[in-house]
Design brief:
Helix Hairpins, BirA Bifunctional Protein, domain 2, three-stranded antiparallel sheet, about 40% helix
Length: about 425
């Protein structure tokens, strides 16, 4: 949500920022509605003052026996009371219309974010690791012999339809190990607080993070109105909704490993083979709540946390800054991490780390106060640390061997009972 005062003070800057995201100027309509709303509020206050004055004069007129003046004043009080009610109702309706207008507009990009239209205009800023030189032609994860026997799409389709998977045996164990490894790294070394949250949330929580109303079709809603979370960003960020925090309590750094649910609306025909794009998947999410002044430093810190996961697993990756045309709705600036997938011979997204400024905080009314200061909106950040399924894909493809087995990263060995490889039979050894 945007600060209406900032739009009033510099509408040209607001529209210029929207233009960088490919959107038309919005300030004329916003300010016209805002001016009319404020005019009605002022008129209601004036009418209320006139009502109060007349109310005080009614008794005096009656006391002196001036019946004509008494009746005139009584009628005036009733007239002004009705006028106040009408003006307040109109102002309230325009306030709702203004809020509705603002809630559909995305966050404004920071000046340092590169301009662009789509993913082709993103800018690479870092690369780590070199893709492995195979002495055979690497295949995609679901084609690896040892994986194919423990990654069952047919049974999943029978149970749930397309874009689901049933994992078993060694592959299921590696998937579980990855999630535990990520949580341990983020809590033990990165200092994040582990949380276990619901995966069913109310409308207000989805609105707070910007998933509603614009992206309702991307999520699943139950018959009794709860939403299945598309990411633990929703629950972790909303833990501070409606709160007034002491500045000394910031930053708050959290992580959670949860199931995530996405309809993948608009993804028809994309990544239909394998488990790269699923309706249900597991992800270790990171969320930070901090002061606006420290948000960019926290963004770099959170990006480094996600990068460390890939580096410990020995997975080559690159870091890119998303351009204005490819950023998420609530983001001011986003770093994407893309991991090397030899089966596809390309880098694919495995993490997005975004700083949102006060955009989500305004929607949630999440504030903090410095000693002796006034309440201010917090800054919120979120990032994948990482998507477990995609990390599993990267581990399998990068570690595949010519005989259909997979050599597993050393960082996972303690989580696998000391086992170091997935055999061509789909079991750990």
């Amino acid at each position: 949500m945007h600060d209406i005062r900032a739009i009033r003070e510099n509408p040209a800057a607001f529209d210029a920022a929207l233009a960088r995201r490919g959107l038309a100027a919005a300030s004329p309509g916003i300010l016209a509605l805002d001016e009319d709303r404020r005019g009605k509020i002022l008129a209601a206050e004036t009418a209320a003052a006139e009502q109060n004055r007349a109310s005080k004069e009614v008794g005096a007129a009656k006391a002196r026996g001036d019946d004509a003046e008494f009746e005139r004043l009584r009628a005036l009080v009733a007239e002004k009371k009705a006028e106040v009610a009408r003006l307040n109702a109109e102002a309230s309706a325009e306030d709702a219309a203004l809020r509705d207008m603002l809630m559909w507009l995305p966050n404004l990009p920071l000046a340092e974010v590169p301009d662009g239209v789509d993913e082709h205009d993103n800018v690479e800023i870092r690369r780590w690791g070199s893709p492995r030189a195979f002495d055979f032609k690497p295949v995609e994860h679901y084609q690896i012999t040892g994986v194919a026997q423990a990654m069952d799409f047919e049974t999943a389709a029978k149970l749930s339809g397309a874009r689901f998977v049933v994992l078993s045996r060694g592959v299921a164990r590696v998937h579980r190990a990855l999630g535990q490894f990520m949580l341990d790294l983020h809590t033990d070394e990165h200092g994040l607080t582990e949380m276990i949250t619901p995966v069913l949330v109310r409308d207000e929580a989805m609105f707070g993070t910007g998933n509603l109303p614009k992206f309702a079709e991307d999520s699943y809603q139950t018959t009794n109105g709860w939403w299945l979370i598309p990411t633990a960003e929703v629950t972790l960020t909303n833990t501070v909704a409606g709160e007034l925090l002491d500045e000394g309590a910031l930053p708050i750094r959290m992580t959670a490993l949860t199931q995530c649910f996405r309809s993948e609306a608009g993804s028809a025909g994309k990544d239909t083979a394998g488990m790269l794009r699923q309706h249900q998947f597991e992800k270790a999410e990171m969320v930070t709540i901090c002061t606006p002044e420290t948000a960019l430093a926290e963004h770099d810190r959170m990006t480094a946390c996600a990068q460390t996961v890939l580096e410990r697993l020995g997975l080559p990756y690159r870091t890119i800054v998303l351009c204005t045309g490819d950023m998420g709705f609530g983001s001011q600036k986003t770093h994407d991490l893309e991991v090397w997938l030899p089966g596809q011979n390309t880098y694919r997204e495995i993490s997005s780390v975004s700083t949102c400024g006060s955009f989500q905080a305004r929607r949630m009314n999440a504030r903090y106060r410095a000693p002796g200061g006034k309440p201010e909106f917090v800054a919120t950040l979120n990032g994948s640390g990482l998507a477990v399924g995609r990390c599993l894909i990267a581990v399998l493809e990068n570690g595949q061997e010519a005989d259909g087995s997979v050599t597993l990263p050393a960082a996972l060995h303690p989580y696998l009972g000391g086992k170091t490889r997935l055999t061509a039979q789909g079991v750990l050894a």
